[in-house]
Amino acid sequence: MKFSTQVKPISYLKSHAAEIVKDLSQSREPMLITQNGEAKLVVMDVQSYEEHEETLALLKLLALGNREIEQGQFRPAVEVFAEMDKDDLQ
Questions:
Q1: Is the dihedral angle over the CA atoms 63, 64, 70, 74 positive or is it negative?
Q2: How many structural domains compose the chain?
Q3: Predicted local distance difference test score (pLDDT) of residue 3
Q4: pTM (whole model) above 0.85
Q5: 54 and 40, same structural domain?
Q6: Cβ–Cβ contacts within 10 Å for residue 9, how many?
Q7: Torsion-angle region of residue 2: left (phi > 0), alpha (psi -120 to 50) or beta?
Q8: Domain, as residue range, for 30
Q9: For residues 68 and 41, is the Cβ–Cβ distance under 8 A?
């Protein structure tokens, strides 16, 4: 994702808020807001934000799972499925 096409000063955000909301909702492209020439914040639509958060949560779960595997903290799938089958029969 390139922010170079969506860089605006904070004064633009202040004076064009409604237009920005409409544009971001349609384009789903985040906008980088600058203050005194420095990047200060990223503005994005809610749906994109929620998708981003879900992606991060999944990546954290994968990283945690990989760490547990590296530390030997796992059980073979065959054992897990056998235990599940045994529980279903009871």
A1: negative
A2: 2
A3: 63
A4: no
A5: no
A6: 14
A7: beta
A8: 1-44
A9: no
